[in-house]
Amino acid sequence: MTPTARSLGDHLREWRQRRRMSQLDLALDAEISQRHLSFIESGRSTPSRDMLLHLAERLDVPLRDRNPLLLAAGFAPVFAERALDDPALEPARCAIDMVLKGHEPFPAIAVDRHWTLIAANAAIAPLLSAVSDQSLLTPPVNVLRLSLHPQGLAPQIKNLSEWRAHLIGRLRQQFSASGDPMLDKLLKELLSYPAPKTAGEVHTDYAGIAVPLQLSTKAGLLSLISTTTVFGTPVEITLSELAVESFFPADEETAAILRSLALN
């Protein structure tokens, strides 16, 4: 026997509750009546495809999860999912390569929704030389696992407790927003790693604007702050889930070290 397919109402209700919105909240945001929304959730009314996409937009449903909504309502999927090497995504790949290359001599990486490494620039390799478990560098590389594993970068991170809390907080937020079981599994794995010792950690406030990554290397202590870049108007699933994490020097000493590493 196969499990009963979930109804459109079940899908909508789950996303509405995940966003902590009442029926009235969503109805007001979507500029429809609460009665209409109630009828849609109960199955007494069938929305048009445009209405369903409008509700998904207001609920900030990821593109990957909008197709199941459409299928539950009897519509064909709208959003394609292609492999990153698909010719249709070549302009996006070129854009990612340009951003990564253009950020040198400072490190930058591209990751997917599960924090799997997609690409990295040349400034990343020198920072990984002290990783003791080489299996962590065997593709597919998960950058959160690599960062926090006790045989990965963790021993080099001088403010590990602070950085770990930052990464786990981001992952919790991402899982809360998406409900992706793979993220939940990754979160539990990271939490299972030994708790870092805080004695001797380096903590720098930077006026409260960012959590720095304090990374100890043979060339010296690097102080880095990061930004995340995503495609602004994606209508393709793979592209919508890609992000570029760019690291910037938080002080002149770090900038000088990274420039010198690029020359070696």
Automatic annotation (TrEMBL):
A Pfam short name: MLTR_LBD
SMART domains, sorted: HTH_XRE (SM00530)
Chain ranges passing through the membrane: none
Domain named HTH cro/C1-type: residues: 12-66
InterPro entries found in the cross-reference section: Cro/C1-type_HTH, Lambda_DNA-bd_dom_sf, MLTR_LBD
Record's protein name: XRE family transcriptional regulator
Annotated organism of origin: Rhizobium ruizarguesonis
Organism ancestry: Bacteria, Pseudomonadati, Pseudomonadota, Alphaproteobacteria, Hyphomicrobiales
